[in-house]
Amino acid sequence: MACIKIFAFLTLLALAKAQQNFHTAHMEHNAHRESLVRNDDYIDAHRRQYAFNIWYYDVQINEFKASYLDRVKGMEYQKDSLLIEIDRADEKLYPIKLLSDFSKSCVNKYEAIIPAKEWAKTEMDRCMSQASNKVDYLVTYMVSTNRTLQNQYSNVFEKQVASCETRFNTSSLAVNQTLCLSNAVAETNTFTQNNQKTFSTQLEEAHNDANINIKALHECSFAVQNTTLIKISEANTRIDRCVYGIDDCTQCQGHFCTDVYPISSSKIDPKNPTMANPFYGRSETGSCLMLNIY
Ligand SMILES: *[C@@H]1O[C@H](CO)[C@@H](O)[C@H](O)[C@H]1NC(C)=O
Ligand SMILES: *[C@@H]1O[C@H](CO)[C@@H](O)[C@H](O)[C@H]1NC(C)=O
Ligand SMILES: *[C@@H]1O[C@H](CO)[C@@H](O)[C@H](O)[C@H]1NC(C)=O
Ligand SMILES: *[C@@H]1O[C@H](CO)[C@@H](O)[C@H](O)[C@H]1NC(C)=O
Q1: Where are the beta strands (DSSP E) in 102-232?
Q2: Residue 169: CB within 6 Å of ligand 3?
Q3: Where is the signal peptide (predicted)?
Q4: 20 to 30 A Cα–Cα from 123, which one of 137, 265, 275, 279?
Q5: Element (H, E) at 260
Q6: Which amino acids bring their CB within 6 angstroms of ligand 2?
Q7: Ligand (nearest to CA of 165)
Q8: pLDDT tens digits for the chain (294 residues)?
């Protein structure tokens, strides 16, 4: 982009210089018989300059759009990482399911908390299309300025040229034609300069608006990532607590108690009628007691 800018600037300088020389040379020769022919060259040189101005607008608008869309597309990477994160969370549950029927029931109970990959993908895509859909809106004013300038060239300027040519169409009126054309060129150049000032302001504003949209895109995808990661962590916590028997008992389905008594397997002796008493020293019996044998 910088390269194109510098190149375009040098080209403009070169063109401006060439035109200056040409203009001077043109004025010196305008009394000659071949002046009408030279007038054509003079106008053609300006037409090329005008075509270049429009071409350069087109380049800037398209560059702007492409770089904005690239920034939006950068979010694909974060989407992919998030989907991998969901895969990992799902994979982590698989060995827990194999561990026992009980741990499998814990996984079954809570795994639905983990957001579906499809959901995360859709939400991230939604954030990205919200941003990319705005690309045409961002360049609306510049496109309109481009159209205005093109209209000035193809309608106003060309009509003035045609009028100069028909009004002063003989060799004896060559000077008059030259003056008429110079006026048309001067008017068009002033119009062009003002139009270019407008365009630069619009390009600057479009850059600011683009930054605002990209920020909104980051917030949108952050919310999706945050929700996903928080839910994964919630599912893991609940499954862990369930497996360790400290599940929220309002949701228990007769599998376990909140009351856990830890007992070493070495203390368990099926042949001994008087094993350690887990209720010893307790003030309440409770409704259930789970042995955590370690
Ligand atoms: C700018 O105007 C030219 C001439 O009308 C047109 O060909 C080009 O597509 C326009 N560029 C944009 C980006 O609108
Ligand atoms: C120049 O213009 C006059 C009147 O507008 C017309 O009669 C004449 O044919 C024209 N000559 C040329 C060479 O176009
Ligand atoms: C052409 O220019 C000369 C000198 O400026 C002027 O006297 C003459 O009236 C002009 N002719 C026409 C047809 O405008
Ligand atoms: C992340 O998501 C959780 C749950 O949806 C929410 O409570 C929290 O406020 C979010 N954090 C941020 C920084 O948005």
Answers
A1: none
A2: no
A3: 1-18
A4: 137
A5: strand 260-263
A6: 166, 169
A7: 2
A8: 444 444 444 444 444 444 544 454 445 444 444 667 788 899 999 999 999 999 999 999 999 999 999 999 999 999 999 999 999 999 999 999 998 999 999 999 999 999 999 999 999 999 999 999 999 999 999 999 999 999 999 999 999 999 999 999 888 898 999 999 999 999 999 999 999 999 999 999 999 999 999 999 999 999 999 999 999 999 999 999 999 888 765 554 544 455 667 677 778 888 887 877 888 888 877 776 766 666
Residue bearing the CA closest to ligand 3, atom 4: 176
Atom 1 of ligand 3, residue of closest alpha carbon: 176
Q: How far is the CA of 44 from the centre of ligand 3 (A)?
A: 24
Cα→Cα distances 62→25, 50, 139, 227, Å: 38, 19, 9, 36
CB contact at 8 A, 83 and 123: no
**pTM score, whole prediction:** 0.72
Tokens of 98: 């194999």
User: Which residues lie below 8 Å from residue 187, measured CB to CB, with a gap of 6+?
Assistant: 160
175 alpha carbon – ligand 3 mean position (Å): 8
CA of 170 to the centre of ligand 3 (A): 12
Does any ligand 1 atom lie closer than 6 A to the CB of residue 148?
A: no
Structure tokens at 53: 């101005």
